[in-house]
């Protein structure tokens, strides 16, 4: 199965098992908008809990807030979003489809990288233990040819980005014969900018209504509340403010399922620091955030940093944590040194003094900020895409399993009476269920054969299945089946809670940070 085929299967699996549904589906849907089903919302909430507790519980100098979606329109002028929150768009004249010019170029570069990796894989297979990858990359003519092309396109792309040269974007696309995926032609329009903010009105009538925006990021709600939090919390620098909330972007080229949506959720933390210390803190938060990701056990090789070549107008350093999705390495989290741009501009536009008095130095100054910003929906997609597996079993059968990190799994345990019509078994199973549900999200299931029930729980990622059988009535033990190994063991009913807790307790993840 190719990565593209795997992605299509994953999307279908998410709908079939209640993770993610197309929004407004009975009205033929709404493009790039999705609803989370009964399994998806549990997974999403578990991811948010992992992030929130890692930020606010493990760091005594980080607190949380929840700011509004509607904000004063001047905020978005101060932040630069009104003037500069744009995407470079290009249309194919034959297919009538619109694309982001920068994404077309990045995808082209990604394909060159794939060609290089395929050549390296061939060399590794051919030479076996004697394979010297560094020498192979430096001498193989196919690798060198592709690398030369990559560097040429990459340098041209970097120059176009830094100069914000829309004509140069198009020239790169034309020179490299980057075609429309639908029409297969290179018949492109000129590149132009498009602002991504949604507008709406606030007021009782059209005459008195004010134009406001749905927030395109949650960070500004933190910045405009900086003084409130600092004073009421008696916070001393360095300190951070964390927030989880919805954001909205009018993405013209929304695609790849929940990777790029028009309504999405962010987990952001702004860390306020003394000017001049920002690069040290930037390095510390890079290390901290990568550790948080790798701690989930989804493989360190599936993550990498990608430093920004073109910095945003507010930044003096920026990097992305990229994850290996089925469609390649893509941004999962951004870490930015935002300087004092935001607080400084809000001070300027509002006319209110937003500074920090440093009791040690006796001076007042506008703090600098290091930001960490992660998309909740992208984290959900990362977990699901890494966890989805189709396995061939020794008995010739196959199974689909979501090996979701156990603390994030939507359902932690399923309680299954062996027979549906045996009152003694169902009563004992229900008693176990009633006992466990106060500590874990559990499911009770008595429909179909025990084998089908196991497969259903595998498909939603349940770490444990607890089967109550006839022996349970005599020895007060149950059969506990592990999702990943499919091994079964007899466990006293009194010990079930401790067994489950050892594997699924979120605190165990936090202790490793």
Summary of the model, kept short:
The chain is α+β, with helices and mostly antiparallel strands and 513 residues long.
Can you put this structure into words, describing what you see?
The chain has 513 residues and is of the alpha+beta class. The radius of gyration is 26 Å and the shape is globular. The protein starts with a helix and ends with a helix. It has 3 domains: 1-71 and 196-390, 2-Layer Sandwich (BirA Bifunctional Protein, domain 2); 86-193, no CATH class; 393-511, Anticodon-binding domain (Rossmann fold), CATH 3.40.50. The strands form 7 sheets. The chain has a 7-stranded mixed sheet with strand order 3-9-10-16-13-12-11. The protein has a 5-stranded mixed sheet with strand order 20-19-21-22-23, sandwiched between helices. A 3-stranded antiparallel sheet has the order 5-4-6. It has 18 helices and 23 strands.
| Terminal Cα span | 35 Å
Q: Which overall shape is indicated by the principal axes computed on the Cα atoms? A: globular
Please list the strands of the largest sheet in the order they lie side by side: 3-9-10-16-13-12-11
Sheet having the most strands: 7 strands, mixed
Helix/strand class: alpha+beta
Under CATH, the topology of the largest domain can be stated as BirA Bifunctional Protein, domain 2
Q: So how many helices? A: 18
Strand element count: 23
Share in helix: 40-55%
Q: What is the strand content? A: 15-25%
Question: What would you give as the CATH superfamily of the largest domain?
Answer: Bira Bifunctional Protein, Domain 2
Write down the domain tally. 3
Poorly predicted residue ranges: none
Q: Please tell me the overall pLDDT.
A: 91
Q: Return the CATH architecture of the largest domain.
A: 2-Layer Sandwich
CATH top-level class of the largest domain = Alpha Beta
Rg over alpha carbons: 26 Å
């Amino acid at each position: 199965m190719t990565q593209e085929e795997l992605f299509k299967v994953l999307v279908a699996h998410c709908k079939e098992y209640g993770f993610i549904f197309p929004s407004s589906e009975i009205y033929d849907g709404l493009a790039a908008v999705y609803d989370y089903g009964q399994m998806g919302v549990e997974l999403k909430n578990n991811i948010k809990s992992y992030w929130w507790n890692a930020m606010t519980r493990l760091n005594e100098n980080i607190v949380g807030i929840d700011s509004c979606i509607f904000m004063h329109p001047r905020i978005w002028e101060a932040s630069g979003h009104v003037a500069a929150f744009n995407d470079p768009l290009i249309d194919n004249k034959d297919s009538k489809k619109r694309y982001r010019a920068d994404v077309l170029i990045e995808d082209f570069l990604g394909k060159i990288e794939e060609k290089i990796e395929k050549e390296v894989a061939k060399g590794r297979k051919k030479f076996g233990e004697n394979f010297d990858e560094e020498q192979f990359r430096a001498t193989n003519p196919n690798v060198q040819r592709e690398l030369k092309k990559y560097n040429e396109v990459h340098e041209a792309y970097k120059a176009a980005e830094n100069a914000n040269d829309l004509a140069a974007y198009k020239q790169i696309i034309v020179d490299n014969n980057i075609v429309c995926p639908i029409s297969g032609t290179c018949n492109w329009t000129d590149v132009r900018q498009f602002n991504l903010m949604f507008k709406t009105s606030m007021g009782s009538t059209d005459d008195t209504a004010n134009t406001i925006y749905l927030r395109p990021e949650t960070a500004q709600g933190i910045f405009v509340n900086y003084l409130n939090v600092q004073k009421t919390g008696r916070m001393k620098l360095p300190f951070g403010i964390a927030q989880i909330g919805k954001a909205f972007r009018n993405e013209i080229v929304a695609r790849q399922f929940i990777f790029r949506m028009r309504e999405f959720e962010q987990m952001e933390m702004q860390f306020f620091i003394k000017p001049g210390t920002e690069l040290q803190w930037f390095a510390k938060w890079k290390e901290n955030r990568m550790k948080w990701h790798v701690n989930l056990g989804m493989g360190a090789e599936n993550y990498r940093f990608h430093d920004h070549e073109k910095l945003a107008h507010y930044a003096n350093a920026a990097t992305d944590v990229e994850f290996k999705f089925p469609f390649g390495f893509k941004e999962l989290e951004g870490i930015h040194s935002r300087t004092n741009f935001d607080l400084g501009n809000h001070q300027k536009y509002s006319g209110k003094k937003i500074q920090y008095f440093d009791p040690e130095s006796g001076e007042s100054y506008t703090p600098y900020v290091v930001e960490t910003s992660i998309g909740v929906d992208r984290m959900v997609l990362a977990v699901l895409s890494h966890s989805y597996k189709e396995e061939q079993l020794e008995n010739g059968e196959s199974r689909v399993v979501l090996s979701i990190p156990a603390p994030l799994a939507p359902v932690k345990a399923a309680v299954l009476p062996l027979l549906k019509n045996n009152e003694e078994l169902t009563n004992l199973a229900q008693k176990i269920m009633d006992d466990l549900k106060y500590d874990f999200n559990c499911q009770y299931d008595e429909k179909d054969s025990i084998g089908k029930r196991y497969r259903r729980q595998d498909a939603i990622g349940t770490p444990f299945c607890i089967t109550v059988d006839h022996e349970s009535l005599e020895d007060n033990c149950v059969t506990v089946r592990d999702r990943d190994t499919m091994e079964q063991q007899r466990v006293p009913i009194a010990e079930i809670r401790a067994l489950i807790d050892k594997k699924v307790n979120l605190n165990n993840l936090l202790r490793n940070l």
